[in-house]
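Format notes (please read before filing issues)

Several people have asked whether sequences and structure tokens are stored in separate files. They are not. Every record keeps both together, in the order shown below: the sequence lines, then the token lines. Line labels are part of the format and must not be stripped during preprocessing.
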Amino acid sequence: MCTACGFTSTTYDPCVDISLDLEPNQGGSAKMASTKTHHSCNGEADCMNSSQNCGISTLMGCLNRFTRPERLGSDQKFFCQQCQVRQESLKQMSIRKLPLVSCFHIKRFEHSSIRKMSRKVDRYLQFPFSLDMAPYLSSSILRSRFGNRIFSFDGDEPDASNESSSEFELFAVVTHTGKLDAGHYVTYLRLSNQWYKCDDASITQVNESIVRAAQGYMMFYVQKMLYYKVSEKAVAS
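Then the structure lines:
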């Protein structure tokens, strides 16, 4: 959006998953978080040595960060069709249409060309078992900015922005243990409200608390209506 005249240019980008940055470490919250959970740093000295691994991020916080407006600098001016000159602008990501299954990938591997180093970020991420995606929809973001004057997008299906389909249930979590150059993947899978740990050829039943404590690398959410329909069929069979 042009900051001078308000002209908006929209681009649609189909995707199979959404890659999310972890929230930046919040200063003094790291030490407090270490007393509440074993997933954060053990002690103030560790936090000083690895500040990016301290504290706790949340999936909702990552989604808020993903969809917040970003002011582009003067070196990234775009050509405004209305002003007919290059202008500074605001860029904002949003989700136009929700899929049946939403996949979120957490960026846990950082690469710095300046420092010429790469590393893994082991900070704990809290993720909900039930997730409402309505706040991150394009329709919701536009209405919060301009009110209910906004019409539906061209080509949208009648139920494309149906609020009842914005409710999702977690059904799979992929974790990664190890370092950047070597590690191991484990999947936690939910079936008929029971969680299973899939570790190579070994599949074992686990408690929900084990899943909540896992270091999420990828999370898969399915629309709530579809999840309960599948669960009912599984029980009936």
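For reference, the curators noted about this record: DSSP finds six helices and 16 strands in the chain. The longest helix spans residues 224-236.
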